[in-house]
Amino acid sequence: MTDHLRLRVRHVTTYDYDAPVPWGLQQVRLRPCSHRWQRVLSWSLTVEGGRREAAFEDQHRNAVDLVSLDPGTTRLAIAVEGEVEVADTAGIVGPQSGFGPLWLFQRPTPRTTAGPACARLVESIAREPSPLHRLHDLSAAISDAVRYETGVTHVGWTAEDAVAAGHGVCQDQAHAFIACARAMGIPARYVSGYLLMEQEAQDAAHAWAEAWVPDLGWVGFDAANRISPDHRYVRVATGLDYGEAAPVSGARTGTGAERLTVAVEVRAQ
Amino acid sequence: MIAPMRMTTTFDEMWGRGTGQSQDAAVPNGSPDGPPEGPPEAPPEGSVNGTPHGADSVLPGIQAARSGRMTQAQVMYQGLRPPYAAFDDWLTGENPARLLRKQHEAEEVFRLTGITFNVYGRAEAAERLIPFDIIPRILSAREWARLARGIEQRVRAINAFLHDIYHRQEIVRAGRLPAEMIARNAAFLPQMIGVEPPGGVYTHIVGIDLVRTGEDEFFVLEDNARTPSGVSYMLENRETMLQMFPELFARNRVRPVSNYPLNLRRSLAACAPRATKGDPVVAVLTPGLYNSAYYEHSFLADKMGVELVEGHDLRVMDGRVAMRTTQGYKPIDVLYRRVDDDFLDPLNFNADSGLGVPGLFDIYRAGGITIANAPGTGIADDKAIYSYMPDIVRFYTGEAPILQNVPTWRCNDPSALSYVLDNLHDLVVKEVHGSGGYGMLVGPTSNKKEIAAFRDKLLANPANYIAQPTLALSTVPIFTRAGLAPRHVDLRPYVLVSPDGVTITPGGLTRVALKKGSLVVNSSQGGGTKDTWVLEE
Amino acid sequence: MLGKTANGLYWMFRYLERSENTARLMAAGQRIALTRSHADDEWASVLETTATLGPYRARHGEVTRDNAIHWMLCDRDNASSVLAVVESARNNARLVRTALTREVWESVNESWMILRNLLSQRVGERELPAVLTVIRNRSAHVRGAFAGTMLRNDIYNFARLGTFIERADNTARLLDVKSYVLLPSAHAVGSSLDNVQWETILRSVSAEGAYRMTYGQDVRARNIAQFLILDRRMPRSLAFSVGKLVDNFGFLADAYGTLPPSGKKAAALQTGFASASVDGLLDSGLHEFVQGFLRDIADLGAQAEVDYRFYD
């Protein structure tokens, strides 16, 4: 069938520390869940330089692993690998799973608070009666307003920063979409995951946004690629913004610097 | 706590209903009578003079000390209420000088024991005593039985509400609680969505603040579903009374409170998570030595026979939260935390918190530890939610509420608003999210100009206001150098919830506004405490 | 038991011991100073024994009686002043409140209330003896409540480790500062020290009577050194303190199943004492011996902090 794809993913996140790290914890959101349009056929998570302490489901029903660093380690490598079968639904994900009320996704977070730049963008969207059309317009407007720029990541950037600067990475475009959608009164959320692209080897995971459309439920919008996600997209985690869906986030002690290396491979089977 | 209402006539718990207009007609949050007055001082000269009705039969034993200046004057008493009969008998035979000495002794005991609360930002004399009044507050078995039923009902409803709010929100779907009451509420903790706390209990420890307005008339002022404090005072007050006046307890059959720590430990252990192996290990988490309630934290850990830990004693290890002991790390099953939600876990909540344990909440979600009370319980004791409590009780228990809420008009409702506007001179009007008594109107003590000005504010933003009626708050006597004097009190009973049931310690903490006429019982604002007796049948 | 609690107990008792030893040193110092023409020299010696002469000079320069008394009793800038250590002891007691009996806690709390009041202003020379007596009595009061009410478990053992590490340290410092008194005459066989000098030393450890009981009126440097270093009957001697450390490490080992490196260090120190002779120590140099001992005791304390996880 042409509207299904079996995708093979391998994703390795490596932290190299200049000095041995006495203590550290990482929250890892790297396990995709099966749902109506996505079936996880196999998936494994391995940790070097640390160990899995616990696994749980968070408020967005993401599968989270808590990883502790081996005391004194100078390297932490988290590798996931597996196969996922995805259907093309033209971006439609469907009903909310879990107990999160929709109003939760209308509340701005510090990263997705609309300022004057976002407000101007919202203002520019035609008053289409159909929310779906408005959201497509918004996605297109964001790809124009926030030029995609690889390699330049500004970790602390907010949606407003990216729109004001006029460029950013997929994370910034997703934040900008979320901020504007919420400013329009539409529930929206952040998605982290993988995308099958021409080049198998990628240097980062992907990110896009989903918005709530009455009758359809959650619908995905990838402003970076000017489309709604199809069967080339693997959804891994969702959240109100990057902070709640980040593949790896945590804390550690120790003063030395660290280097982060990310290697992602996505292949169609 | 500030009583949300103005008192019109005083109901004296010892002497019955007064029929005259009390001179204490008081303003919540501030007394018109001038400077604060504590027990060692005589009532100010402005207080009521004259001979009380039946003066000679009133406390003849302390006649000398009273020197005819009882502030209970002008109030017509119906006579001694039965729960106080045996106590009054004893008091009659007491020498005021001895009582005064006892009062000082009590303070000495408290100082020596270190029963203090810390005052922030002061290096010197940073630890203060909470004044203790030796006259007990007495409740009859019948009064208590009804209260206890009402408290249990309310606490069960609160737990059912919390489960619902963090799951399907049926109460919102049913249209009984507007979604925005939750959505706009900072006390709602999204991270708790979908969490099933071990044992199904959210609020393991609850304090319900009550005021009494007449025979069998109690109102709930406030629910404390986060980390209610003060239980150590309940226990130490009783201990002190037993030491000072053993003979009183021979004459009165007072229900004991001393098994609270044992019950607390049992109750916590009954909520141990599935990861527990063997006897559940309980620990008390304190913010540390300089927290205002540190004494209570160490007191409870001591009485329960469990460790008192701080964030830096703990770390995530082998899928559990473990404490650093002299022999290595040892897992904790149940953490009775006295640290606010926001500071519990820098990885999941306030990242700047130095008090918490990184990863604690992750282990909680994974079923590796019980946190008591559960994070996010503040949504149940929020001021905005308070006005819905009668509906909440009905919705989850299917019963009529036994305890009354102070009736509250929400001014976002047009019919309520019109009532409030018509009755401003009789009502107390408060901001929904305000605290500390700011931005409020006390109708009965405000002049026309003030009421008119407030009316404009109210009309400009009705949704921001609620209004409550004025009630007649009861008083109990306190012991002063000049004799007995009536003061306003509240009552905070302590409730334990476990899968095995609800346990309410008979009595609780009576807080007393030592300032004449004041309704403010907070220890930080000159409030004191009393021993609270519930008599056996 | 929490590592933090062991740490709190250890330091609570180190501080209590220090308050008492400082009071004793000052009492002896005052007595001796009265008999000297250069009285302030004696106060400098007392400051040196409390290991605070350097910080004192940095703050006050010249050593004077009044400044020295204030510094050692009430000055909050001096972390080892009696007021500061009693406050630290009490704070540690609050920290480990759950490990203490009510009587011990109340005794410490009351001591703090009394001494805070007593030391809230400068203490004049005339009041000094009475104040020093109160300090010693309060320490005795806490010790009495402790001995009389505490369970003999690991809680007790960590408190005792604190007491005897502090005591061994304090007595060793006294010996070091006074070694100039002991040394010149130590080899002069048969010569006695002058009354004033030996009194200083023995008074500083409340041992005039004990010494007389042991040696009669025969006051010799060699005997004093023997008494304060090697006599296992003398409760403030180094050998006694080390013996108590070994005992308490032993009780901990019984309870915990292993004797950690710190316990082994203590045992090695004790073995060294068993084979030592006072003549040998004096021959090879008292100062060198004491310096070595102070290092060993400090290492032992640091090792115990690691072994029993006092800190993260």
List the helices and strands and how they pair.
The complex is a heterotrimer of chains A (269), B (537) and C (312).
Chain A lengths: L3 E18 L2 E8 L6 E11 L1 E8 L5 E7 L3 E15 L4 E3 L21 H9 L6 H15 L1 E2 L10 H7 L1 E2 L1 H14 L4 E8 L5 E2 L3 E8 L3 E5 L11 E7 L2 H4 L2 E5 L5 E11 L1
Parallel strand pairs in A: 8-9
Antiparallel strand pairs in A: 1-6, 1-16, 2-5, 2-15, 3-6, 4-5, 7-13, 10-12, 10-14, 11-16, 12-13
Helix pairs in contact in A: 1-4, 2-4, 3-4
Chain B lengths: L10 E2 L3 E2 L45 H4 L18 H8 L3 H18 L2 E3 L8 E3 L2 E8 L1 H25 L4 H4 L5 H5 L21 E10 L2 E8 L6 H14 L1 H6 L8 H10 L12 E4 L8 H11 L2 E3 L4 E4 L2 E6 L2 E4 L2 E4 L22 H6 L4 E3 L10 H4 L2 H9 L6 E2 L3 E2 L3 H9 L4 E5 L9 E2 L5 H13 L4 E5 L4 E7 L2 E10 L1 E5 L2 E4 L4 E5 L13 E8 L3
Parallel strand pairs in B: 1-20, 5-25, 7-15, 8-9, 8-13, 13-14
Antiparallel strand pairs in B: 1-2, 3-4, 6-7, 6-22, 10-11, 11-12, 16-19, 17-18, 17-19, 20-21, 21-24, 22-23, 24-25
Helix pairs in contact in B: 3-7, 4-13
Chain C lengths: L2 H32 L4 H11 L3 H8 L4 H9 L8 H14 L6 H17 L9 H22 L4 H24 L1 H8 L8 H10 L3 H8 L5 H10 L7 H19 L4 H15 L2 H7 L1 H22 L5
Strand content of chain A: 35-45%
CATH topology descriptor of the largest domain in chain A: C8orf32 fold
Q: Roughly what percent helix of chain B?
A: 25-40%
Q: Strand fraction band of chain B?
A: 15-25%
Helical fraction of chain A equals 10-25%
Major sheet details of chain A: 5 strands, antiparallel
Pfam family, one (chain C): Alpha-E
Protein name (chain C): Alpha-E domain-containing protein
Domain DUF403 (chain C): 1-308
Protein name (chain A): Transglutaminase domain-containing protein
Name the features.
heterotrimer, A: 269 residues, alpha+beta, Immunoglobulin-like, C8orf32 fold, 2 domains, five-stranded antiparallel β-sheet, 18% helix, C: 312 residues, mainly alpha, 16 helices, 0% strand, globular
Offer a concise description of the structure.
The complex is a heterotrimer of chains A (269), B (537) and C (312). With 269 residues, chain A is of the alpha+beta class. Chain A has helices at residues 116-124, 131-145, 159-165, 170-183, 242-245; strands spanning 4-21, 24-31, 38-48, 50-57, 63-69, 73-87, 92-94, 147-148, 167-168, 188-195, 201-202, 206-213, 217-221, 233-239, 248-252, 258-268.
